[in-house]
Amino acid sequence: MFILNNSDSVPLYKQLYNQIREHILSGKLPADTRLPSVRDMAIELSASRNTVDGAYQELYAEGYLYSKPRSGYFVSALDQDVAPQTLSGKPSKNDYLPGPPSNFAYDFHPARLHPESFPTELWRKCFVESLRRNSQQLVQYGDPQGDWGLRCSIQSYLERSRGVLCDPDQIIICAGLQQSLDIVANILKESHSVVAVEDPGYHLPRFVFQNHSYTIVPVPVEPDGIDLNHLKASNSTIAYVTPSHQLPLGYVMPVANRLALIEWAASGGKYIIEDDYDSELRYHGKPIPSLQGLRPTGNIIYSGTFSKILSPALRLSYMVLPYSLLATYRQRYQTYFPSVSLLEQRTMAHFMEQGHWERHIRRMRMIYRKKHDILLQSIETHFGKRAVVIGHGAGLHVVLMLPDTSLSEVEIIGRAQQKGIRLFPFSDFHVTGQPETTTLMLGFGGMNSIKIEGGISILSQIC
Ligand SMILES: Cc1ncc(COP(=O)(O)O)c(C=O)c1O
Which of 45, 98, 228, 431 is the most exposed place for a label (fewest CB within 10 A)? Predict the structure, then answer.
């Protein structure tokens, strides 16, 4: 009934233990079944008595077996409803793991960065330096709000480059936007239950707020940002917006609308969540200053990330809370431990202190501007008047409207896939309805110029 494998790295007694336990949990060995004596089982398995005795002792100690004097070991009665899962009851890999990622020759995913862009050597130096300087701190958990030095570096960077006015005290280091929003959703949920989101807009915030049982109100986006009349007419008291580079349409909210949005928030304790995710990447003209800088004492929660310029894999982002929310945040989260490794935080702080961060931004802006221009040029060459480009001039993607095509987005994505082209569905950004015109989203960060040109050429033949 049981088979032991001498070449297995699992000890023989443990193999026997596992198999008997499995039989008991699955009911193959019912309660009160008498197990063969140690001697008989050892003979049956061609194993030593120690092996069998070791397995029986462990099963006995854990309560799977009971013993009767001079009669041997018997299977205990287990309540099957509360019994631990059997080993074979574990989900098989295919039950829960997505398939391996497909490799596409042309990847237009909007979240891809330039493959050779991570400053490995500089990062290594900063990492080693932070390890040398901070070894004493590595025996503690650290500040739940994030490393103080990193918060100071972020504060001065934000003030200089984004016009954000805050104290390092207001900054919270997070492992990405979703974690920031998780915190916001938690600290606001006593007095707020409805969140307005841009439609079309970034889809992940919707899921975070839904997980906290908020009602989501989609608000249309106009070329001057979220539709303020629609917002005011809604019963939402929180608005999540991307005013400096609307995702996905790339619109910039003009200052008059920003001020009107700030007034909306000021009337009656409402909150704006300003997601300033990629403002460093503006290719023509001046960077757009943040909304937070227009009213630093307002009800504005500002969020930024290192995912677009440095690496999304680092999971390093930050959020600036208004003073009105700091006390609640601290009261709720003072017992939490930090979610980002202290070493990564100290490395990032060192990277910023040494001026590498701002040099890296300038370098990446040049690289992406070149890719962006090549993409526009390729669209012009291959699509000509068949396509209308919107949202160009910033970020890592543009949006392509195809008024003349008879194909739907799904059909184009399917055909593109067969030609080795990956497209991210634009429709994922829509909360309600679908765009009237077939619309594609084209990320250009992850491909070189030749691939961008080649991919657009093939795509133009498909559409
Ligand atoms: C609108 C928007 N905000 C924020 C982020 C970055 O999020 P994170 O800091 O979690 O990487 C992204 C990434 O694609 C984004 O599209």
Answer: 98
Contact 291, 262 (CB under 8 A): yes
pTM score of the predicted model: 0.81
Q: How many CB atoms lie within 10 A of CB 115?
A: 11
- Could you tell me if 351 and 122 are in contact, meaning their C-beta atoms sit under 8 angstroms apart? yes
- The CATH number for 106-112+359-462, chosen from 3.30.930.10, 3.40.50.800, 3.90.1150.10, 3.40.1280.10, is 3.90.1150.10
pLDDT at 84: 61
Say yes or no: CB of residue 257 within 6 Å of ligand 1: no
Residue-level pLDDT at 268: 87
Q: State residue 299's pLDDT score.
A: 97
Determine the pLDDT at residue 285: 76
Joined together, the tokens standing for residue 448 give 């070189």
**Spatial distance between the Cα atoms of 200 and 204, rounded to a whole number of angstroms:** 12
Verify whether ligand 1 is closer than 6 Å to residue 242 (CB atom): yes
Instruction: Encode 168-177: b = buried (16+ Cβ within 10 Å), e = exposed.
Output: bebbbbbbbb
Quote the pLDDT of residue 288: 86
What pLDDT is attached to residue 90? 52
User: 12-95 — its CATH code?
Assistant: 1.10.10.10
Can you list the residues of the chain whose pLDDT is less than 50? 95-99
Q: What is the pLDDT of residue 365?
A: 97
Centre of ligand 1 to C-alpha 355, Å, is 24
Residue whose Cα lies nearest atom 8 of ligand 1: it is 176
In the CATH scheme, what is the code of domain 120-356? 3.40.640.10
Pocket-testing residue among 177, 182, 274, 424, ligand 1, by greatest number of atoms within 8 A of Cβ: 177
* Look-up of token digits 């997070």: 174
Q: Please choose, from the candidates 446, 460, 461, the residue with its C-alpha nearest in 3D space to the C-alpha of residue 105.
A: 446
**Amino acid type, 154:** I
Give the C-alpha separation, 64 to 78, whole Å: 8
Q: From ligand 1's centre to the CA of 110, what distance in Å?
A: 11
Q: Tell me the two tokens of residue 158.
A: 């934000």
